[in-house]
Design goal:
This protein is an alpha/beta fold and about 425 residues long. The protein has 2 domains: about 40-225, HAD superfamily/HAD-like (Rossmann fold, 3-Layer(aba) Sandwich), CATH 3.40.50.1000; about 260-410, P-loop containing nucleotide triphosphate hydrolases (Rossmann fold). It has 15 helices and 14 strands. The protein has helices at about 5-20, 25-35, 100-110, 120-125, 130-145, 165-175, 205-210, 220-225, 270-280, 290, 295-305, 320-330, 345-360, 370-380, 405-410; strands spanning about 45-50, 50-55, 65-70, 75-80, 95, 110-120, 150, 185, 215, 260-265, 285, 310-315, 335-340, 390-395. A 7-stranded mixed β-sheet has the order 1-2-7-6-3-8-9, with helices on both faces. Helix 7 links the parallel strand 8 and strand 9. Helix 11 (about 295-305) packs parallel to helix 12 (about 320-330). The relative contact order is 0.10.
């Protein structure tokens, strides 16, 4: 073949190669290219307030009353690795390609952009403040937006759905502690949805309800999907009564003109110790959390009885077996023995137990125990009966209050996890 024909064939091959369409980049590849080209123009001042990590974009103030607030994981971003939890501070991509344009438009429309995120991995040692701060800084620069950022690191009053982060934002970051309730919103993925995929939690929805903002899922806000988000599928403390009869039965009184023993019956968090504090303050309180063992409880109870004092057994006392030794002690000394049974729902018990951790506006007699002991109480529970030897049984109706102050009341009626 001549050199002329060889050159001609090569040119023909080049044209054919040029005509082959380039492979379309995936969303992930496009985002990675943008990250490489993106200049780190947004810088942050980072600090901590108790258990809240706080990021303020330098040169910006939170002035607008229109608040567009967001969860971070699986709302603004998702993992690049495809794993449930991020492997490091760089394991992320925007949740959807529409996130950037939507959030930029909100900023152009005059919204202050805020992140409220639970980052319990810091408290558990799985990640660090530095890693989360780096991630949020990179996200802000990817979005080209100044984002005020707050994240909770512990199981306390600052963790969503509790209001701690929101209150700190209004009081310490925003130029004035006001917001446009009509236009402001919170967007998060933890909405308690049952299908098509069950949400791991409903904490984002409850957070929005607690702070009084309109709620959206990322599917609703970024993808314009129609979703029916229920606000009635979970326990609502606002439905609890604030007045009524103390006992279900007529004729039951808290005090007696006879020496007596009262045995409280109720799950952890049911309000037994609060009841004792409010109505049985003159009784000697016998509590296993304090005395540690049953023999010590019985010994302390007998000593008080011998001193002609009234005694209240402030334990959970769920079963006939757990109550029989105290009843036998009362019978031995020929004093009256009554049972006060705090019959509350399991959901209310969870709520009251969470109050021990979240509500700092009142005195709590015990620390939060968590769900397992409460589940166990309800599994083991046997209602007290006269056949056990009780002279009288009073079923205590749950009545919310009294409250120490407005903050105590607001915290009590807030949604908890």
């Amino acid at each position: 073949m001549s050199s002329k024909s060889t050159r001609s064939a090569a040119k023909k091959e080049e044209k054919q190669i040029e005509k082959v369409p380039k492979k379309q980049n995936s969303d992930e590849e496009e985002q990675e290219e943008e990250k490489k080209d993106n200049k780190q123009s947004i810088e942050y001042t980072w600090s901590t307030h108790k258990t809240i990590g706080v990021g303020i974009p330098k040169g910006h103030i939170a002035e607008s009353d229109k608040i567009a607030s967001f969860d971070m994981d699986y709302t603004i971003i998702r993992t690049k690795s495809g794993k449930k939890f991020p492997q490091n501070e760089h394991d992320w991509l925007l949740w959807d390609v529409k996130v950037k344009s939507k959030m930029q438009q909100l900023y152009k429309d005059g919204f202050t952009i805020v992140i409220f995120s639970n980052q319990g991995g810091i408290g558990k040692g799985h990640t660090t403040h530095k890693e989360i701060n780096t991630k949020i800084t990179n996200i802000a620069n990817e979005l080209e937006l100044p984002i005020f950022s707050l994240y909770a690191t512990q199981e306390d009053e600052n963790k969503k759905p509790n209001k701690g982060m929101w209150e700190y934002f209004l009081q310490k970051i925003k130029t004035k502690p006001t917001f446009d309730e009509k236009n402001s919103f919170y967007c998060g993925d933890a909405a308690g949805r049952k299908a098509p995929v069950k949400d791991f939690s409903d904490s984002d929805l409850k957070f929005a309800l607690n702070i009084g903002l309109t709620f959206y899922t990322p599917d609703q806000l970024f993808l314009d999907k129609k979703e029916n988000i229920s606000t009635t599928d979970f326990f609502n403390p606002k439905n609890l009564p604030t007045q009524g009869d103390l006992f279900k039965q007529k004729g039951v009184k808290t005090s007696s003109d006879k020496q007596e023993m009262i045995i409280m019956v109720g799950s952890a968090g049911s309000g037994k110790s609060t009841f004792v504090e409010n109505y049985l303050k003159d009784y000697v309180r016998i509590n296993r959390d304090t005395l540690k063992t049953m023999p010590k409880c019985l010994e302390a109870a007998e000593k008080a009885i011998q001193q002609k004092k009234n005694v209240v057994i402030d334990n959970t006392n769920p079963t006939v077996e757990s109550r029989k030794d105290f009843i036998a002690l009362a019978k031995k000394h020929k004093i009256q023995v009554r049972a006060f049974d705090l019959q509350i729902t399991k959901d209310l018990a969870f709520h009251l137990d969470n109050q021990r951790e979240n509500n700092k506006n009142r005195t709590h007699f015990s620390k939060r125990v968590g769900k397992i002991p409460i589940h166990k109480f309800f599994k083991d529970y046997q209602a007290p009966t006269e056949q056990e030897g009780f002279d009288q049984i009073g079923t205590v109706n749950f009545i919310a209050g009294p409250f120490n102050n407005k903050a105590d009341e607001e915290s009590f009626f807030s949604f908890t996890k």
